[in-house]
Amino acid sequence: MSGMKQKDFRDRLNAAKDAKQAMAAKFNQRPGPDDPAVAEKRAARAAVSAARDARMAEREALRVAENARLAAEREALAADQAEQEARAAAEKAANEVKLEAERKAARDARYAARKARK
User: What span, in angstroms and rounded, lies between the C-alpha atoms of 83 and 103?
Assistant: First the structure.
């Protein structure tokens, strides 16, 4: 036989009852919701949460401001590019008008020279 002592049923029941009572006592020792320490911890958690929310809101505001700044830069760049394109188109049109006038003058000169030869 082994050297361990066999416990009878009554001893096992008493051990289980003692364990349940110890667990209940440990649970009942916990402070209630109106305890100052619990209220202090709750307030500290609320303060940390509020600070986290404030930091998140600040980061969101910075992100929105940065997006607005980038959008304004893109719009300014697009407006500048459109202005340059308009200026180039006007210059091209003016060059075409000038070129057409030169062609007409050359054509008129050739016509006048041909008339003079006859």
Answer: 30
For residue 4, being part of any structural domain is answered with: no
3-state secondary structure (DSSP) of residue 116: helix
Is pTM beyond 0.85 here? no
What domain range is 80 assigned to? 10-117
| 92 within a domain of the structure (yes/no) | yes
Whether residue 71 contacts residue 78, with contact meaning beta carbons closer than 8 Å, is answered with no
> Is the confidence at residue 4, as pLDDT, over 70?
no
Tokens of 36: 């100052």
Angle at 64 (CA atoms; ends 59, 65), nearest 5 degrees: 95
Q: How far apart are CA 109 and CA 103, in angstroms?
A: 10
